[in-house]
């Protein structure tokens, strides 16, 4: 259940975008063009699967803050729309303001509709449709069953409608989206949990805040019992260094021995940049990678000399998972393009809306040679 493309409408600076998901997708742009909005909109899709999407929008200031605030055509409702397409199934969701007769808090984000479609060749078959609180599902025989008041306006059918036997596609999409992992930043201040020992629990992939970093590294050495690739990656970034992770008395720790230092340094002694790079090692070299990994500006706090090794790390991980990156760094972008066939994903503002240079309305990238000759507004 790896995604093939994503559609976003009316989210912050994004008027409308349809983006393909490739093994490695990298987007670069200046400040203020809406790069972070691409990352956040994908995170909202994961929140739909966990049931937190309305809470996340409320935390961000409500629909008035997160919905497209630019000019609209006459008759447009301005609803926030998100969709993810997988190889054999589609999911879409719409959110809007409460109607005059709906029981809700003023300004509360409400889920207006959700749809799941199964794809059979070129044919799409609607399998689940939710309108306000009313959920309808198609069974194996093709007959529809209706569930009135099955969910509240603040709840997603994807997370809270549990009739998986009637509509197994609900569970398939829910599990697929819940497995997505997002990494925005890692705290490296002295009180950060990354700098402290953690519980010795087998950890196949790093948590979003990195708090189980030592366990993720120790899992590679104690459970997989093979750290050759990890040591090669450490050597690539820090020549002559050696990383060691272990379990002791129910806790996991790690240390880094560098070639020019008389003793190894534990996590609480490492520099911010070194510690963050080790976090990224754990993201991309985990025992089992999530099928989809998104990172927002992973180059932050890293020395420029680490960007080429990071690019090699990312390119290798893209063979095991779909990697989606937003970055400020031209150097990282060029390093990634030298390691993998990454299409140019330059994020720009076009008529006040976030757009991706060279991306057509159908979700295909034009050849770079065509970009100078075609300034039409396909985004």
Automatic annotation (TrEMBL):
Residues 369-379 have a biased composition (Acidic residues). It comes from the Bacteria. GO terms for molecular function: ATP binding; ATP hydrolysis activity. Residues 229-334 form the ATPase AAA-type core domain. Residues 360-379 are annotated as: Disordered. GO terms for biological process: DNA synthesis involved in DNA repair; double-strand break repair. InterPro entries: ATPase_AAA_core, DUF2813, P-loop_NTPase, RecF-like. SUPFAM superfamilies: P-loop containing nucleoside triphosphate hydrolases. This is Putative ATPase. It comes from Bradyrhizobium macuxiense. The lineage of its organism: Bacteria, Pseudomonadati, Pseudomonadota, Alphaproteobacteria, Hyphomicrobiales.
């Amino acid at each position: 259940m790896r995604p093939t493309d994503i559609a976003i409408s009316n989210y912050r600076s994004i008027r409308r975008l349809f983006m393909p998901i490739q093994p490695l997708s990298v987007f670069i742009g200046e400040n203020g063009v809406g790069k972070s909005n691409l990352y956040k909109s994908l995170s909202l899709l994961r929140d739909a699967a966990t049931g937190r999407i309305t809470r996340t929008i409320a935390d961000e200031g409500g629909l008035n803050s997160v919905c497209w605030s630019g000019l609209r055509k006459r008759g447009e409702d301005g609803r926030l729309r998100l969709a993810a397409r997988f190889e054999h199934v589609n999911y879409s969701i719409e959110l809007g303001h409460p109607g005059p007769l709906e029981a809700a808090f003023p300004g509360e984000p409400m889920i207006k509709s959700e749809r799941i479609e199964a794809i059979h060749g070129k044919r799409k078959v609607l399998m689940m449709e939710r309108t306000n609180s009313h959920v309808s599902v198609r069974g194996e025989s093709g007959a529809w069953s209706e569930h009135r008041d099955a969910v509240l306006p603040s709840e997603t059918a994807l997370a809270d409608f549990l009739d998986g036997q009637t509509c197994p596609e609900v569970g398939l999409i829910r599990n697929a989206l819940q497995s997505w992992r997002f990494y925005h930043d890692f705290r490296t201040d002295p009180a950060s949990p990354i700098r402290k020992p953690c519980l010795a629990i087998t950890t196949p992939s790093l948590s979003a805040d990195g708090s189980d970093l030592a366990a993720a590294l120790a899992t590679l050495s104690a459970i997989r019992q093979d750290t050759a690739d990890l040591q090669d990656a450490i050597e690539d970034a820090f020549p002559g260094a050696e990383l060691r992770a272990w379990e002791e008395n129910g806790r996991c720790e790690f240390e880094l021995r560098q070639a020019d230092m008389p003793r190894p340094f534990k996590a609480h002694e490492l520099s911010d940049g070194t510690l963050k790079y080790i976090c990224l090692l754990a993201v991309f070299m985990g025992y089992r990678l999530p099928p989809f990994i998104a990172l927002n500006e992973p180059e932050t706090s890293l020395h420029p000399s680490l960007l080429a090794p990071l690019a090699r790390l990312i390119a290798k991980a893209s063979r095991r998972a779909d990697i989606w990156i937003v970055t400020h760094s031209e150097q990282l972008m060029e390093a990634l393009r030298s390691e993998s066939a990454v299409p140019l994903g330059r994020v720009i503002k076009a008529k006040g809306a976030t757009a991706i240079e060279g991306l057509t309305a159908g979700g295909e990238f034009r050849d770079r040679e065509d970009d100078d000759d075609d300034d039409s507004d396909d985004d």
